[in-house]
Amino acid sequence: MHPIVPLPRFALCHACCRDRENQPHHKERCVPEDLRHLAKTGQTIAVRVTPKASRNMIKVEDGMVRVYVTEVPENGKATRAVQKLLAKALGVAKSRVALVKGQVSRDKVFVVTD
Q: CA 97, CA 36: separation in Å to the nearest integer?
């Protein structure tokens, strides 16, 4: 089993949203840039998913990655949305982010592959 690494706390806005007074908060672009250090082959990432959220977003709370997606939890739509958003935050292709555990659960474990 791969070790699950605790994550640091960080600001949640994308570069386009840093100046909150002048820029609107974008739904699709609100992903943290600080997850790029986890983009190592074999790295596992445990996430807690909230489907049907008001916007797509990733938060790190007390070392746990929380992923909010607007998709409904039907036929794997929310899981695919989480995979896409997580890959974007990691800076890798979505084909490199594989689901290891939690196909139909809110608690999921992803691994970064080759």
A: 13
Pairing state between β 57-61 and 64-68: antiparallel
Position 100 in a domain? yes
Whether 99 is covered by a domain: the verdict is: yes
Find the length of the chain.
Answer: 114
How much is the pLDDT for 5? 54
48-67 residue pLDDT tens: 999 999 999 999 888 889 99
Count: domains in the chain = 1
Model-level pTM?
A: 0.72
Q: Residue 57 belongs to a domain with what CATH number?
A: 3.30.1200.10
